[in-house]
Amino acid sequence: MPVAREQTPGTQRVVIAGGGVAGLEFLLGLRTLAEERARIDLVCPRRDFVYRPSAVAEPFGLGRAHRFDLASLVEERGARFVPDAIVSVDPARRLARTRRGEDIAYDSLVLACGAVSKSALPGALTFWGSPGSAEYRAMLRELEAGGPCDIVFVLPAGAGWPLPLYELALLTRHHLGACGISGVRVTVATHESAPLELFGRRASEIVARLLAERGIAVCTDCYPVGFEDRALEIVPAGRLPADRVVTLPRLEGRPPAGVPRDAEGFVPVDRHGRVEELDDVYAAGDITSFPVKQGGIAAQQADAVAELLAAQAGAPVSPEPFRPVLRGLLLTGREPAFLRAEVSGGRGEMSTVSTDALWWPPGKVVGRYLAPHLAALANTELSLSPPPDAATLPVEIALEEPSVVH
C-alpha cells in the first residue's frame, strides 16, 4: 500500500488517532507549543466533534450537546484531517494503517481513540448521552403519567466517570418536584464507599447531604448482578425494589492492533503518555489505563504528551508529567456544585468550599487549549448557568500522587 504524503511543512511527522477531547486538545497544544515544527495528521472516522458533557441535561430541556465540524477544527490549525480510522500499528516501520488500507508514516503516533461503550446491565435503561435522550424523555413522560414508583440509578463497576449518574438522579428528582409529582422513590446504588468518593471526604459529605435533602436514598458498597421481577439484585446479597433501573455504559478499550493493552483493553502509559513497550507511540484520554474516564483528565494527559513532543521537535518547552486534577461541575437542577480534586504530593486532604467558580470558562470539560477555543466558537461557556439567586458549592480536594499510570 502507498505511504501517505505529508501535507504541511515541518520536521516531525505526528499522527493523531482520534478526534475527541484528547485528540483535539493535543492538536491545539502541540501547534501552540511547537508552532510549525510538526506536520500533523488527525485520523478520525467521525466528521464532527460532539461536546457531550451537557447531554445529561438534554432530556430535561436544560441543555444540549454542541456539535462542531471536525475537519474545520483540524485544518484551521494547519493539520490534515483524514476521515478514516487507524486499525493497526507497525512500530518497527513507524507506519499506521487505516481501515481503508492507507499506510501513514509517523515519527510520533498519539492514540486518542477513546473507549467503547457497552451495555452494563440487561434490562436497564443505559444512558448513552445524546443518543439516549429520547428514551430517557419517554421514561420521564411515563413518570409524569403516574407510572413506576421505584427508580434505581446504578453505577457500573470498572473504569469510568460516576458524576453523570448522580446528575441524572438529582435532575430527575428536581423534574418530578417541578411537575408536582410525589410518591416516586429514587435510589442511587453504587460500588463506592460514599457518593463521589473520588473527590475526597468533604466533597462526598456535601454530595451525600444534597442527596438526602432531595430525598434520594443511597446504597453504597454494592454491585448489581441482575434486574428482573421489579427488583435489582445486588451483592452482597440483597434486593432493591426497582420498577426502572438507569445505568451508565460500561467502558472497554479497543486500541489498534499491535498496541499493548490490559485485560479491559486499555493502554498502559507512563506519566508523559508513552505507551509501554513501544517507541514513539503515545496515548491520552479514555484509551489509557488511567481509571478515571473524563474529558478534563483526557485534556491533561494530552497536554503532557504535547509538551513532550514539542520539546522533541525543538521547541523551548520543559515537559511536565501528567498530574491529575479532577474537576467536576455537578448539575443538580438548582445550584451547580464545582468539585475539584488535585494531586498534592502526599500532603493529605485539603478541602475548600467557596461560592466562586474554580476555573474559566466554567464548563464541564476543562482543557488548557480546547475549552476556551470551543467556548469562543460556540459563543457560550458550554455549561449551564445557575439561576440568578443560586449559590455554588466548589470543593477542592488533594489526592495522593500516582507514580505510574496503569
Q: What can you tell me about this protein's structure?
A:
It contains 7 helices and 24 strands. It is elongated. Mean pLDDT is 86; it is low at 1-9, 343-347 and 381-406. It is an alpha/beta fold and 406 residues long.
Give the end-to-end Cα distance, rounded to a whole number of Å: 35 Å
Strand content: 25-35%
Number of alpha- plus pi-helical segments: 7
Describe the global form: elongated
> Are there runs of 5+ residues with pLDDT below 50, and where?
1-9, 343-347, 381-406
What is the helical fraction, as a range of percent? 10-25%
Oligomer designation: single chain
- Structural class computed from helices and strand pairing: alpha/beta
Radius of gyration: 22 Å
- Secondary structure: number of strands: 24
Question: How do you describe this structure in short?
Answer:
The protein is α/β, with parallel strands linked by helices.
Task: Lay out the secondary structure.
Blueprint: E1 12-17, H1 21-34, E2 38-43, E3 48-51, E4 66-69, H2 70-75, E5 80-82, E6 86-90, E7 95-98, E8 103-105, E9 108-111, E10 115-118, E11 125-126, H3 133-144, E12 150-154, H4 163-178, E13 185-189, H5 201-213, E14 216-219, E15 223-228, E16 231-235, E17 238-241, E18 244-247, E19 250-253, E20 281-283, H6 295-312, E21 325-330, E22 337-343, E23 352-353, H7 370-378, E24 395-399
Parallel strand pairs: 1-2, 1-9, 2-5, 9-20, 11-18, 12-13, 12-18, 13-14, 22-24
Antiparallel strand pairs: 3-4, 6-7, 7-8, 10-19, 15-16, 16-17, 21-22, 23-24
Helix pairs in contact: 1-6
